[in-house]
Protein: Precorrin-4 C(11)-methyltransferase
Organism: Nitrospira moscoviensis
Amino acid sequence: MRVYIIGAGPGDPKLLTLRGAELIASCPIVLYTGSLVPNEVIAHARPDAKVMDSSGMTLEQIVDVIVAACDADQDVARVHTGDPLIFGSTAEQMRRLSELGISYEIVPGVSSFTAAAAALGRELTLPELSQTVILTRAEGRTPMPPREKLEDLARHQATLALFLSITLLKDVTRALLPSYGADCPVAVVHKASWPDQVIVTGTLSDIEGKVKAAKLHSTSMVLVGRVLTATEFANSRLYDPEFTHRFRKGVTATRKQGDVRAD
Ligand SMILES: C[S@@+](CC[C@H](N)C(=O)[O-])C[C@H]1O[C@@H](n2cnc3c(N)ncnc32)[C@H](O)[C@@H]1O
């Protein structure tokens, strides 16, 4: 018996991995994390599967379901939104499974932060502008570790992807303004990849008002950084004709090799 911790992807059922779909279709027990896992993903379950929504359960109730499945020697598909290892609350489940000697395997998924970037059509890392993406959240009921306050992370001016923060935009902008500047681009993608996806773009100075006007209160990714609008960035070295790497020799290197041969 095994528990498969599966990333359902951000919403579009076609963004579920083949491995995830295959496992959901084969497990007799499917335990999914509520409305953010689309029905079409759960529809992969076999007709006789026991399918349960875990959104109203406690950790111990989830573990009880898994232990019962273990006693019956039945595999469990534990389906989480996006990628299960990013703000997935999966570590505490895995810890309990390890304590109980129940084996598990993780199937990654497309996270909402990449789905949001895809919706915007923007790369989150651009040469010489930002080579770092910080995945974080604003401090709400869940406290932030003291070394990870937003105003401290902001000092890097890296691209930021903020989960679970849409209702905290006032605090977010206050923390980011001194380092990023009022004109720094911000994009909010609500329900990325779902049919009712909404995109609101602005700057640190006006995004809060725009989001309020759009009445977005949940399921939104907040992306911050100059990469969101930049057009004046350097090309990467990867496709530079002069750049030699494992799969391609740069023009000069090829010429030199030719010279050596000619010698
Ligand atoms: C509990 S976290 C789960 C994140 C998930 N594991 C992931 O990798 O995307 C929930 C938060 O993820 C973000 N989120 C999840 N799905 C989203 C989507 N389709 N579009 C935008 N944001 C989403 C929102 O910030 C939401 O508050």
